[in-house]
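## Example record

The block below lists the input lines for one assembly entry, exactly as stored, with component labels intact.
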Amino acid sequence: MAANSRLTIATHALTWLALAHRRGQEVLTSDQVAASVNTNPVIIRRSLGDLRRAGLVEVRHGAGAGWSLARAPEEITLLQVYDAVGGEQPFGLHHTEPNLECPVGRGIRPALTQTYGRVEQAIRRELADTSIADMLRETVTN
Amino acid sequence: MAANSRLTIATHALTWLALAHRRGQEVLTSDQVAASVNTNPVIIRRSLGDLRRAGLVEVRHGAGAGWSLARAPEEITLLQVYDAVGGEQPFGLHHTEPNLECPVGRGIRPALTQTYGRVEQAIRRELADTSIADMLRETVTN
DNA sequence: CTTGCCGTAACATTTTCTGTTACAGATGTG
DNA sequence: CACATCTGTAACAGAAAATGTTACGGCAAG
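Predicted structure tokens for the full assembly:
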């Protein structure tokens, strides 16, 4: 399982919900979203469940149930989606604690944490600059 | 296996090589580096092998063998290390091709690729801003 | 009450990383 | 030249995580 596709799945689902709403379709079921993403409905329910807990989508239960956006596409950024699906850091520290008797082993982790933190902030800035409305616009013109 | 620690291992090794050189130690063996990182020497050889192919370190074979930096610590950036160890993208696209009969399924991948490309560039900018000399300085003051 | 769909548990599969052992090859030293 | 030392790499085991899949309880509209 190469890279993490959770942000991709969630963004795809949200973009699809935004387009459906613009076309007058109130809600979409997990089956309908899964048909577009081409995966299992349970994957979609798990992803949309994360987004619901973050307040980005709403769900209706019972017969005629389905999902819809909880706010305008312009007001949902990819950063919010990233946080909602639990984005993981691109770089990890040592799996086992380094040798603390070595000066490098002792000081490298704080130094790396600082650098990796700057990288994470750069990622967040880029993601905060793109909304679901942006994604929808770029998607339908492609 | 949570995140990718390859950049961490490689940076640790390079920082340790830089400090050893400053202390007058010409080369370090993979065993000596492994003792600081607290892992198996083969892991270190694999990592330093990547760095050697990228021209960042040199290796001496035979008896009295070992590794040394191929250039000054100021001239090795974390971006070069990232490329040397084959850094993977933080976000992946769909595992299976989306449904191309859906407008979102058709257009989402180019849109995501564009956004993810901007994120990747932001990461590279940050990594290019930090050198092994920077890491060594931050490490020994911690 | 029936039907349709969500929520979630449980499990199989796949992939990747890390760690480990083993051994061939290279090279300085005596 | 023989030897000791260390690299380069293959082969394999184990662990962890993501994804996909089946199954089933629960909720709500008609």
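Chain B touches chain A through 58 residues (CB under 8 Å). Residues 19 and 136 of chain B are 7 Å apart (CA to CA).
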